[in-house]
Amino acid sequence: MVFPVVFLKLADWVLYQLLANSCYRAARKVRNYGFFLRNQTPRSSSQQQAASLFPSASHCDVSNNIRSSQTLVCDIHGVLLTAKTFFPYFMLLAFEAGGILRAFLLLLSCSFLWVLDYELKLRVMIFISFCGLRKKDIESVGRAVLPKFYLENLNLQAYEVWSKTSSRVVFTSIPRVMVEGFLKEYMAVDDVVGTELHTVGNRFTGLLSSSGLLVKHKALKAYFGDKKPDVGLGSSSLHDHHFISLCKEAYVVYKEDGRNNQSCLMPRDKYPKPLIFHDGRLAFLPTPFATLCMFLWLPFGIVLAIFRILVGICLPYRLAIFWGSLSGVQLTFQGCFPSSNSEQKKGVLYVCTHRTLLDPVFLSTALCKPLTAVTYSLSKMSEIIAPIKTVRLTRDRKQDGETMQKLLSEGDLVVCPEGTTCREPYLLRFSSLFAELADEIVPVAMNAHVSMFYGTTASGLKWLDPIFFLMNPRPSYHVQILGKVPPEFTCAGGRSSFEVANYIQRKLADALGFECTTFTRRDKYLMLAGNEGIVRENKRN
């Protein structure tokens, strides 16, 4: 029932919008920008004259204590974010929630988006990105994927004004569902007024609701009535000038300031809230050019990933390192090989930070020796392609302890006590179980870097994690083996298992320059996927 309604409305919209309006708009745009370049000078000067009516946001007095009781209104696009276009965020939504084919369709739309005006361009991107997708999938991307890219493009100049006010309301023509999660979770916004989308059941049709595309100055009047907001932040566009002119004070965030001064970007240490967890496969901001490069790389990336997997499975360690480096995999090793105690009947327990599922594989390769890895969740595909022995744990503390004791009696063992991966420079809370099992504990600081695809996911297909990591042009792994934990800091030296776990967590964090947290696997999955991250196997009678 969804698609007949969608296509009927789309047909009516196309006939009116595209045929009646777009041809004229496109012709005028081509004439103004393509052939008569001489007409740009007076037009730009008139815009500059209009923009000079309002002072720059840098001139706003943020030291004034009265700001703490004032209300601020602004838009996220062009004000809070430094990005020139919202296309990358629609691409993230299309790729992560809709898949690679939808993302490719959105990329193809760039061939004609440039001739459309702002409103029609936004309608087309909304339709391609949203049509047929479930509400919960869109909300998941807005909560778990987009905030990372929003924070990386946050305008420091605008945020300094934003942070000094007590009440904040965002008015935007961007779909509310794309920005509300980020603004409420990270920016402490009081309310978000954005474009509402039409839905049928639990799916988006890709069309706007009956209220249409949000007009900011009209929405502001409807929201505040006769009362004027204290501070308004806008971009240099004429539409925003009408919007912020309804405020008692008005300031403009000029594009020239951000383009000429990289310090306008928000540094990580000044984020409104630390970014610890995020999801999604894309590790870059998918601008049209960057997305085109990704699609051109995909065929080569798939072949390269298969080659790298075969190298890891079939070749000896030295040859695997050689051919892996030739294919672009960078493996750096730091530290010394731990010496085994001949008096000990047990193997060495390697305690690693957890960046991807390939942590034990790269450690085994760096040491040039076979290891056994234990993990809480591992797909059948990952087990098949793993060049080392892998054993699943059950989350039953007693049973898992017995399993690990048995494995240690057979040889060296690798454990990642965080229980799940973390992409950012933070370490999750360490489980203390490993500290009770061995006295020869070797901490290993591991870190991975990618440029195109993340090799981890909370809500996607986990069996693709190693493949996506190896599809990167030049993935890198850093392996740093620290010295054995001194006997006085082990359980045999009188320390509790919790003290040992916290001590090793701090040592690894210091080695990597990371920050320790008390977050757990459960916290990560509740935030990103809405579940506790436990895969329950169906029992057949």
Explain the overall architecture.
The chain is elongated. The strands form 4 sheets. A 7-stranded mixed β-sheet has the order 8-15-14-9-12-10-11, with helices on both faces. The longest helix has 34 residues, at 2-35. By secondary structure, it is an alpha/beta fold. It has 2 domains: 67-256, 3-Layer(aba) Sandwich (Rossmann fold); 298-529, Glycerol-3-phosphate (1)-acyltransferase, CATH 3.40.1130. It contains 22 helices and 16 strands.
SSE diagram, text form:
Elements: H1 2-35, H2 40-51, E1 71-74, H3 76-80, H4 87-98, H5 100-108, H6 110-113, H7 118-130, H8 135-144, H9 146-152, H10 156-164, E2 167-175, H11 176-186, E3 191-195, E4 197-200, E5 203-208, H12 216-224, E6 231-234, H13 238-244, E7 249-252, H14 255-260, H15 288-314, H16 317-326, E8 330-335, E9 349-352, H17 359-367, E10 372-375, H18 380-385, E11 389-392, H19 397-410, E12 413-415, E13 426-427, E14 441-449, H20 465-470, E15 476-481, H21 497-512, E16 515-516, H22 521-528
Parallel strand pairs: 1-2, 1-6, 2-3, 6-7, 8-15, 9-12, 9-14, 10-11, 10-12, 13-16
Antiparallel strand pairs: 4-5, 14-15
GO molecular function: glycerol-3-phosphate 2-O-acyltransferase activity; phosphatase activity
Transmembrane segments: 89-116, 289-311
Signal peptide: 1-20
